[in-house]
Write a structure and sequence with these properties.
By secondary structure, this protein is an alpha+beta fold. Helix 2 (about 25-30) crosses helix 6 (about 85-95). It has a five-stranded antiparallel sheet. The chain has helices at about 1-15, 25-30, 35, 50-55, 60-70, 85-95, 115-125, 125-130, 160-165, 170-175, 195-205, 230-245, 280-285, 315-325, 325-345; strands spanning about 225-230, 250-255, 270-275, 295-305, 310-315. The termini are far apart.
């Protein structure tokens, strides 16, 4: 009986993964590869397989980056992963590096520089790529939205996630050595000395006093809903008129159940109005191609069983929260105002 119980326990723990070590390759493929490439070749995210990246960052940097992400910069935080799972992902990332690059020393020696002088040097040598206030490069890094002169998107240095992950020594080492395979050059080769670089690092560290923060607006509903005093057909015509008045083109109008049932069995009291402003969409897509998931614009009109007619759309501000892209926030706020205006005009 004891032997049977032990075997049963061993089987249960094996099947539930209680004793099994986390599979770093599988975790990486699931959580990281879509942005960083299956083999760390990069894409939306930076190429993790670059030897110059692998040799410049320690495991603390990788761990903290995975745990906290980069608020407002597409890289999400993976707070639901256990410490063991994060370490397993890091171990897998290290397999991308050549054997000679696998051992990375801890990089925690603080810099001793003049941040005031460092600001002037930063403005001259760093701001072109990293932004005047360290806000980082533009776009997500996806091929068609990435500025063609920057094969890797310059990170946001004035970011709570970066500042928590990057040590002074790591930043200093990157400035001194550069990062081969990216636009990041060695600033020793352009005439700066070690004290100059310490000054720049001290200035970057001073961003911690006023970092750029990305805060989610609380209690945002995923959809906008208004009640219409008109019947379905009149409400649909009102939406069309309101959308055209906002410089949108009507693409099509179809029953919500289109394609799900035979045409004669579709409910005529559930209708979707599709409309588009191609200039606005192109601008939003250039910031973040994931906007395409809720394009073209659409408003749904539904007659409830009690006779109430409701008009609904997605809430772009809610979508903005999901994308973790501060650059997209302005476009989502603009789209929210457009949706709200169209719904209000159609239901007056």
């Amino acid at each position: 009986m004891l032997r049977y119980a032990l075997l049963l326990f061993a089987g249960l723990t094996f099947s539930t993964g209680l004793l099994a070590a986390p599979d770093g390759a599988r975790l990486y493929e699931r959580h990281c590869s879509a942005c960083h490439g299956l083999h760390g070749e990069g894409g939306v995210g930076i190429p993790l397989a670059l030897p110059s990246f692998q040799s410049a960052v320690d495991d603390h940097f990788l761990f903290t980056t995975i745990r906290h992400g980069r608020p407002g910069r597409v890289m999400p935080s993976f707070k639901t992963l256990s410490d063991a799972q994060v370490r397993a992902i890091i171990s897998h990332i290290r397999t991308f590096a050549p054997q000679s690059e696998k051992t990375v020393p801890a990089l925690h020696k603080p810099a001793h520089g003049d941040p005031g002088r460092g600001k002037k040097l930063f403005t001259k040598y760093c701001a072109h790529c990293h932004g005047a206030k360290g806000e980082g490069g533009h776009g997500t890094g996806v091929t068609f939205s990435r500025p063609r002169d920057l094969p890797v998107m310059p990170p946001a240095l004035n970011n709570t996630g970066f500042l928590a992950a990057a040590s002074d020594e790591m930043i200093k080492r990157t400035l001194m050595d550069g990062r081969e395979g990216t636009p990041m050059i060695s600033f020793l080769k352009v005439g700066l000395n070690e004290q100059d670089i310490d000054d720049i690092v001290s200035y970057v560290r001073s961003f911690e006093k006023s970092p750029i923060e990305w805060k989610y607006a609380p209690d945002i509903e995923p959809e906008l809903t208004m009640e219409s005093p008109y019947d379905v057909q009149t409400t649909v015509e009102n939406i069309k008129r309101a959308a055209i008045g906002k410089n949108f083109r009507i693409i099509r109008i179809q029953n919500l159940e289109n394609g799900l049932f035979d045409e004669d069995k579709e409910d005529p009291n559930q209708v979707i109005v599709y409309f588009c402003n191609f200039n606005f969409i192109n601008q939003a897509l250039s910031i973040d191609p994931r906007v395409g998931l809720f394009m073209p614009c659409r408003v749904t009109v539904v007659k409830r069983d009690d006779g109430t007619v409701e008009v609904m759309s997605i809430n772009p501000r809610y979508m903005s929260r999901m994308y973790n892209n501060a650059e997209l926030k302005e476009s989502c706020n603009k789209m929210y105002d457009i949706y709200e205006s169209i719904l209000e005009e159609a239901t007056l």
